Amino acid sequence: MRKFFICTTALFVLFQLTVLCAFGQVTQLAPGVQKIALGTADRFTPYSFCNELPMSEALNQLGPGKLPFNVNDVKININSRGVVVEVPLDDTEQLYGFGMQIGSFNQRGLKKRPIVNDNPLNDLGYTHGPASFYVSNKGYGILINTSRYATFYCGNTAKLNNNRRDVKESNGGNSVEELYKSDNKASGYVTVDIPGAKGIEVFIFEGPDLKTVMQRYNLFSGGGALPAIWGLGVKYRVKADFNQYQVNKMAAYFRDNHIPCDVLGLEPRWQTASYSCSYVWNNSFFPTPDLFVDTMKNKGFHINLWEHAFVSPKSPLYQPLKNKAGNYLVWNGLVPDFADTAAANIFADYHRQTFVKQGISGFKMDECDNSNIAFGSATWSFPELSQFPSGIDGEQMHQLFGLLYQKTIYGIYKKLNQRTYLDVRASNAFASSYPAALYSDTYLHEEYIRMILNSGFAGMIWSPEVRESNTIKDFMRRSQTAVLSAQTLYNSWYLQNPPWLQINKEKNNKDELMENAKQVETDIRKLLNFRMSLIPYLYNAFADYHFKGIPPFRALVMDYPQDKNTFNLSDEYMIGESVLAAPLTEKMDERKVYLPEGTWYDYNTRQKYEGGKYYTIKPDLNQLPIFIKSGTILPLAKPVEYVSPDTKFEITCYVYGRANKATLFEDDGVTFNYEKGAYNSVNLLWEKNKGTVKRAGNFKKSRYVIKNWEIIN
Amino acid sequence: MRKFFICTTALFVLFQLTVLCAFGQVTQLAPGVQKIALGTADRFTPYSFCNELPMSEALNQLGPGKLPFNVNDVKININSRGVVVEVPLDDTEQLYGFGMQIGSFNQRGLKKRPIVNDNPLNDLGYTHGPASFYVSNKGYGILINTSRYATFYCGNTAKLNNNRRDVKESNGGNSVEELYKSDNKASGYVTVDIPGAKGIEVFIFEGPDLKTVMQRYNLFSGGGALPAIWGLGVKYRVKADFNQYQVNKMAAYFRDNHIPCDVLGLEPRWQTASYSCSYVWNNSFFPTPDLFVDTMKNKGFHINLWEHAFVSPKSPLYQPLKNKAGNYLVWNGLVPDFADTAAANIFADYHRQTFVKQGISGFKMDECDNSNIAFGSATWSFPELSQFPSGIDGEQMHQLFGLLYQKTIYGIYKKLNQRTYLDVRASNAFASSYPAALYSDTYLHEEYIRMILNSGFAGMIWSPEVRESNTIKDFMRRSQTAVLSAQTLYNSWYLQNPPWLQINKEKNNKDELMENAKQVETDIRKLLNFRMSLIPYLYNAFADYHFKGIPPFRALVMDYPQDKNTFNLSDEYMIGESVLAAPLTEKMDERKVYLPEGTWYDYNTRQKYEGGKYYTIKPDLNQLPIFIKSGTILPLAKPVEYVSPDTKFEITCYVYGRANKATLFEDDGVTFNYEKGAYNSVNLLWEKNKGTVKRAGNFKKSRYVIKNWEIIN
Fold first, then answer.
1. Which band of pLDDT confidence, cut at 50, 70 and 90, is reported for residue B127?
2. Are A379 and B15 in contact (CB < 8 Å)?
3. Which residues have C-beta within 8 Å of that of residue B325, sequence separation ≥ 6?
4. Which residue has the higher pLDDT, A183 or A608?
5. Which residue in the set B123, B174, B191 is minimally distant from A268, CB to CB?
6. CA B476 – CA B586 distance, rounded (Å)
7. Which of A181, A180, A197, A249 is nearest to A21 (CA)?
8. How far apart are CA A68 and CA A74, in angstroms?
9. Which pLDDT score is estimated for A660?
10. Where are the domains of chain A?
């Protein structure tokens, strides 16, 4: 790494309160990753907590980056209010990112405040997964390394006396009607407002293209997460007040009815106290937890425990953490100072000893997202004015709380060389390497789909969970989306029976099943079996996320950044290298699909389509609305009911078009031994009407058995 | 005034970043008004712009105040993040205020952020009229003198190691259901978070009761506003694109059909440019504005001009203000630095010369409230990071912009000894003396009613305007509320015809009138005539606002602070001394009314009710849902079509119960001569079955002629 200095001349001398800092320090952090620093940087930033080392080799292989502007065109202004950063923006650029945004996709022209919150109405930028990070289709990304509440003006401001660039001014109008019509594409810069900061670090991730930017970002963050392979199956969370007997019964239901399920999640009642948490098994509900976990394991179920991080006075963690917690309580519970390694270690050690060693395979880390109800009545989280022994304040702690919580829990598994797949309600930047899926209560299907796309710009994993539904159609559409996402999750925390037996909450809890429950169950089994078939392909996509930084789920604009038709396309996405998903919602019987350049195949009809055009599809409720790119081999496995360390996937290779290839990633699926090279690349090749399989690598077992080749032309 | 010092010992020593300030300075500002100051106070605060002197004599007459806590129990903590203020709160206190709140009434247990905004969803505290000021039914008010975005936790936080008071802790629960049920009445303090501040002034207004707190606040702010008497009539805003001919025609409609109207408001098209504003008559729409204003005046109409403060490059104000404006533009227009007297004077001088001297009697000051659309795309206002030559930043300017704008415009009229009644989209604390009514686009009738109550806790005036409606019932209910409010306003800025002729916008603009238009017109005439009858009573209520600080419109809890049934009663209010309004909304055919202690008469049925109980009323659509307190004389005038300086009100005194009295305030109605004593108190007395009228004061004319006495028993 080389360091050099550049003079960022402050061009706009404005008024007496402006403190001008004329020199910014530019540091090359990794190939194509630069940092501009000015003033006194904050101690508690997302990057300050990133312990993962950049994946240097992979970064080197990305080749040279390129910026469409000069680094010293990025202006930083420090004044008595805070820091203002201005980044050049040309008139045609499209912007994406700001973490797991919910209400918007293309952020050009918007004002965005990526602030952690559980119920982000009004599209202000509030989200479970805030990140002060955006990317441009011109091939670069800008990350403001702050955990303060920052505001981004994405090319929608105009300055007085602006001599810097061509500024396309707001049109205005002579009436409100005219005003609404004006395109408001003012300004030649993105402006970032970071009140309270006394200095700032700006990370610049170079392209040259959008996908490479995300690769650089993810690789710089330690590489994308590779979940335990069983995490790619089906997760089902049982009703909050289920006891050991009831969970056993539910487990039996899955196996008896041959419905795939890898993970059962327990909700609050497993603990003696849950708001706040005791982290102690409630023996009247779970009299023999050791036996329970073992029994479940023998039936192929992993157990995931719900909790949050607010520590009840009834918890054994209370006394050890009392002097390592914030000065405000939540539900009378401590807020651990996760910014202090000592506090995080106490929390982690207890969890390791008590649960992970017991066989608990993951946690659902709830309530770390500063609940919306906190807006009305602050009792769902701690105030921004909170103080913590480490010195972090409540505002910055809010932005980082989910990030630090998942880091704390993930660290347990990492140290034990045991992989996991976690659930977490909040995240932030540099979290790419954490195998933790974000989830939400907001439950608008359109938004859940959009968030799959936005997750790819965030280095985050998104789980569009399914609960109850208004109609069977709605339920099936949501299930399709869940199957085509990073985690297939049914969250029945308030449902007695699986929702496919009764979509209505009240009836479900009265055991009044639907008349056509068995038919819906059959359709769901079909969808979930497809999910199980897709695991090898998905697992390879996650390996590409880890080793190459390529988001496994991503917007089409990431692969086709020059195609204008993709700029605002917020309801189609790529899965892995060559599958395009176009999910439908309850309102739709059919939908319009845009297919970018190339040739594509409808997975269901096998019909061939030329790219660059719009088509209409009408998939059934028990089909998956996906297209396969020509030149692809789609390896689909014979569905298993769950993935065990011994599972051998029996693969059929579907060959779309000619001269095809694909890769499968092969390892034990449950340890980090792949980091030391214990994995194979299983290369599938279709040439001259013949399929070949070449295995390369150091993993000794083979988990994929190629059974068939099937040609689709 | 005496000054003294008190040691506010900081009791909670927390962590290394906390900067402790052990001494706060307490100053007695006026009888029952104290200020605690600590640290370096901000330059730009609401009080720093209050030029009005306290009404000392009236303040002296209020008698001694009383606080339920010791002044040095108010804790101020200054740290690197900003300032935190903690004010004692007991378990039974009820809190109100935070300016013109929309979504909530009793603020106890809520988190409120009184931040200026035009479309305040989610009840976060955002409002057109933010004020960092709350009052307690225990008889005191707390005003944080800041124009920063502050957050109030109204008794819903709990601290670790809290040794200070009895803290009722959050109940929590073992499930989310239990959690929702918990009452969350934690904490023995209101906590205020003021990020960015380096010091603070806390104003304490003493009681001993809730109404006296508001009297002190309003009197300290210079006394309540006394609008020009014609302002209490009916205001009608014409369609935005009406030309001179069309406005004349509309004026003729009112007079021909004997529908009262005092003010006609012009919308954007009167100007050559409006987004941003030129402040120049558009001669193709108004070829002879002087003639137009004169003609209207002769017909008894006052003309009000729509505008906002963002100055178009096409405006004669642009060059003079270019160096006295913020560094960001809005609709390509300047944002005048109203915090600089020189900028305000330029703006005012131009308006005086160009419009006020022409006879323009008021302005509608639009768009000064940081539009909601600004959340998505910032173009509807300036960014918080803006800088102004005076040194104020964009955040503080936003909070103060509407306040300074109305001060600027009001100052013109004040200097000319000419009264007015303005419209403004934003306000803040210490604005009691400004005769400017807030208005909104939000248009939820329930909220508009609640805002009438909240205006009384804010020293603000609220105008629940009527536009189109879904049903005639909705329209009539809204009209009833408008008649029973501080300003009766029909805002037809997008309606060709008066809405009572066609409630549907599309049909209205196609001149398709309703079949029963004439009947609805008759009903509206009846309601508006009642408004005109009420003017003498209302005018006296405003005189009480000015001279005694008593809010003319106020929640019942202000008059009955010990009555638990009033604590959350957010849809009934007092008008003046003895009229209780209980408006209905579209959904209601009847409603429940709570009548507090005493005896009350239904105005419509004349039925007598004992207080302390709930009753059901079912007023017709053309009646007003009001009750009159026993012991009252309600003086109602024979309705006039508009109020001129020569208007003599012919009064019938309605005597409710025995031993009654009432007062009317008598002056010229249009100048500030009353400040020099040129007014009369007309005292009405009913004793021993005989009515007497006693006039006291220095105003030479009599405007009220008492014609009749009518007894209701």
1. very high
2. no
3. A160, B311, B334, B335, B336, B337, B343, B388, B389
4. A608
5. B174
6. 8
7. A197
8. 12
9. 85
10. 3-220, 229-548
Q: Which member of B79, B275, B334 has the closest CB to residue A173? A: B275
Closest chain B CA to residue A392: B17
Residue A264 CA to residue A489 CA, distance in Å, equals: 10
The yes-or-no verdict on residue B373 having pLDDT over 70 is no
pLDDT exceeds cutoff 60 at A164: no
Nearest beta carbon to residue A124 from set B193, B375, B389? B375
Nearest to B175 among A16, A104, A274 (CB): A274
- A195:B196 CB<8 A: yes
Question: Which residue in A111, A325, A384 is closest to B377 by CB distance?
Answer: A111
pLDDT of res. B124? 83
Mutate: best of A113, A170, A239, partner B, most B CBs <10 A? A170
Please determine, for residue B413, whether its predicted confidence score (pLDDT) is greater than 80. Answer: yes
Average pLDDT, whole number, for chain B? 92
Which residues does chain A have within 8 Å of residue B312's beta carbon, measured at their own beta carbons? Answer: 172
Average pLDDT of the residues in A100-124 = 89
Question: DSSP letter string over B513-576?
Answer: --TTHHHHHHHHHHHHHHHHHHHHHHHHHHHHHHHH---SEEEHHHH-TT-GGGTT--S-EEET
**Percent above pLDDT 90 for chain B:** 87
CATH number of B229-313+339-368+401-539: 3.20.20.80
**Best of B169, B377, B395 to disrupt the A interface by mutation (most A CBs within 10 Å)?**
B377
Chain A residues touching B98 at Cβ < 8 A: none
- Measured between beta carbons, the chain A residues lying within 8 angstroms of B241 are 175
Pair A307, A271: CB distance under 8 Å: yes
Query: Based on the number of CB atoms within 10 Å of its own CB, is A587 exposed (0-12), middle (13-18) or buried (19 or more)?
Result: exposed
Q: Do A333 and B172 touch (CB under 8 A)?
A: yes
Q: Is the interface score ipTM higher than 0.85? A: yes
More confident residue, A7 or B100: B100
Query: Helical H runs in B223-333?
Result: 244-256, 289-298, 318-321
Q: Which two tokens stand for residue A569?
A: 């396309």
**Beta carbons of B276 and A79 less than 8 Å apart:** no
Query: Which pLDDT value is given to residue B658?
Result: 79
In contact, B685 and B652? CB cutoff 8 Å = no
The candidate with the shortest Cα–Cα distance to A669, out of A438, A435, A342, is A435
Asked if the Cβ–Cβ distance from A268 to B322 is below 8 Å, we say no
Q: How many whole angstroms separate alpha carbon A326 and alpha carbon A397?
A: 10
Contacts of B280 in chain A (CB under 8 A): none
Largest CA distance in chain B: 76
Using a CB-CB distance cutoff of 8 angstroms, which residues of chain A are in contact with residue B193? Answer: 383-385
Give the best residue of A315, A327, A337 to mutate against chain B (max B CB count within 10 A).
A327
CATH 3.40.50.720 describes domain A229-548: no
CATH code that applies to domain A3-220: 2.60.40.1760
Q: Are B268 and A329 inside 8 Å of each other by CB? A: no
Residue of chain B minimizing CA distance to A334: B160
Concatenated DSSP letters for A85-140? EEEE--TT--EEEEES-SS-S--TT-EE---B-SS-GGGSS-BSSEEEEEEETTTE
Q: Which of B409, B462, B468 is nearest to B439 (CA)?
A: B462
Is residue B184 over pLDDT 60? no
The pLDDT mean for chain A works out to 92
**Residue B552 contacts residue B545 (beta carbons within 8 Å):** yes
Report the pLDDT averaged over residues B334-340. Answer: 98
- Shortest alpha-carbon distance between residue A67 and chain B (Å): 26
Interchain pair B393, A81: CB under 8 A: yes
- For the cut 90, the answer to whether the pLDDT of residue B181 exceeds it is no
Give chain B's radius of gyration (CA, Å): 25
pLDDT band at A16 (very low <50, low <70, confident <90, very high): very low
